TrEMBL record:
Gene3D superfamilies linked to this entry: FAD/NAD(P)-binding domain, Glucose Oxidase, domain 2, Glucose Oxidase, domain 3
GO molecular function: beta-D-glucose oxidase activity; flavin adenine dinucleotide binding
Descriptive protein name: glucose oxidase
Location in the cell: Secreted, Cell wall; Secreted, Extracellular space, Extracellular matrix
Organism expressing this protein natively: Aspergillus fijiensis CBS 313.89
UniProt similarity note: Belongs to the GMC oxidoreductase family.
């Protein structure tokens, strides 16, 4: 992982991006000792940097530009997605991309969450190493295993500028043959040739940048809105020793009649021939058993509770009345239900302070070609024979909550797809 060393001149698999999905893919492919894998990461290796292992470092670090990607800098929330959300992926034209496939085989299993109704609480899992109380991220977890695989090379401070193609291999489908890469402190651009596949795992923004001439790139990009409301906690014995941080989360059902009206008003034109996103969202919002938001409770010294509300879809309303059950009133300094005046004040505050999250996905979605999208359900870029995408940019519809768990699982599935070829 010497950032000053030139890359290999050739490799069976070239993985562009050493983030969460890229390192999972590299590790799993390197289990076959007969193939060579090269990972090119534009950011530095900071796995042993105390600034990164500090659990709050994600607040100040450039998003994803480091070995391990977002898993090295995010807020540590590992939330398995809902069955309803994943099943829409298959309904949008991607056979096999459903809850049953993922739940049986990949990063989240029945030991972590049993999927019954979509609405309901979830066990909160933080990506923290219990042995050292430091961040557990892809660069630490997978690089340690990869170090034992001599057929895997991970190069940091290596920025890919371009993918270069041969003449059409089969019909009008092109074969990705080389990548043009720049190494920090080495001004000469290097060509690296692939013997098999080039895999794009550069993230939701950089992957479409490398594919920007392809039809449909970027058109499906999505993100969550988040509203955070502070609330004073009561000073009672039950919470005296409560450690700051995330305490609980749940998938919930909001009043979605207004969402359905907005969907019909602003996205009705999508129904005819584009991504199918409108129909997929309608299926969820119209079903009372399906969640439409994620809510979490975090605490900070004070003591103060932070309620966070993440509406799951683009038109979901961030301001809703969420009642607190009477048995929990004693934990809050103002345990009574809000008055009409205080609710209006809260609505105004949310409208002013609501933020987008760092949950961006979908910029290179897996959807049928007739829907003007970019990637087959086999993760191959349309018009190519061997160029694949494995990061969060392939999500056709964003998960109900933090996407990290889904990114890990997608990368594992992607490795299985490549191994089966």
């Amino acid at each position: 992982m010497d950032s000053h060393s030139p890359p290999l001149k050739t490799a069976d698999y070239i993985i562009v991006g050493g983030g969460t999905s890229g390192l999972v893919m590299a590790n799993l492919l390197s289990e076959d000792p007969t193939v060579s894998i090269l990972v090119l990461e534009s950011g530095p290796n900071r796995a042993k940097d105390s600034y990164i292992t500090d659990l709050m470092a994600w607040l100040k670090h450039p998003a994803g530009h480091v070995l391990g990607g977002s898993s090295a800098i995010n807020s540590l929330v590992f939330v398995p997605p809902s069955a309803a959300g994943l099943n829409t992926w298959e309904q949008m034209g991607n056979p096999g991309w459903n809850w049953q496939t993922f739940n049986q085989k990949y990063a989240y299993t029945s030991k972590l969450v049993l999927e019954r109704p979509t609405v309901g609480t979830r066990p909160y899992t933080a990506t923290i190493n219990p042995n050292c109380a430091q961040r557990s991220s892809a660069d630490v977890t997978y690089s340690a295993v990869a170090a034992q695989h001599p057929n895997l090379t991970i190069l940091t401070a290596a920025t890919v500028h371009r993918i270069m193609f041969n003449s059409p291999a089969v019909g009008d489908r092109y074969r990705a043959a080389w990548i043009l890469v720049e190494i920090t402190d080495n001004p000469d651009l290097k060509l690296v040739r692939t013997n098999r596949k080039i895999v794009l795992a550069a993230g939701v923004f950089q992957t479409p940048k490398l594919l920007e001439l392809n039809r449909g790139v970027g058109a499906n990009m999505q993100n969550h809105l988040i509203a955070i409301i502070p609330c004073l906690l009561s000073r009672i014995s039950e919470i005296e020793d409560l450690n700051p941080g995330f305490q609980a989360l749940a998938f919930i059902r909001l009043n979605n009649q207004k969402d359905l009206r907005l969907l019909d008003q602003f996205l009705s034109s999508e129904r005819s021939a584009t991504s199918g996103r409108t129909q997929a969202i309608e299926l969820i919002l119209a079903n009372l058993d399906k969640a439409s938001a994620c809510i979490f409770l975090s605490t900070i010294p004070g003591p103060v509770a932070l309620f966070g509300l993440i509406p799951c879809f683009l038109l979901s309303q961030a301001v809703q009345y969420l009642s607190i059950t009477p048995s929990l009133h004693k934990f809050f300094d103002r345990g009574l239900a809000p008055t009409e005046a205080s609710l209006e004040i809260t609505k105004a505050a949310v409208r002013k302070k609501a933020l987008t999250t760092h949950h961006t996905c979908g910029s290179v979605a897996i959807l049928p070609l007739e829907k003007k999208k970019v990637v087959y359900s086999t993760l191959t870029v349309y018009g190519t024979t061997n160029l694949r995408v494995v990061d969060a940019s392939i999500f056709p519809l964003m998960p109900h909550a933090n996407p990290m768990a889904t990114v890990y699982a997608v990368a594992e599935r992607a490795a299985d797809i490549l191994k089966s070829l």
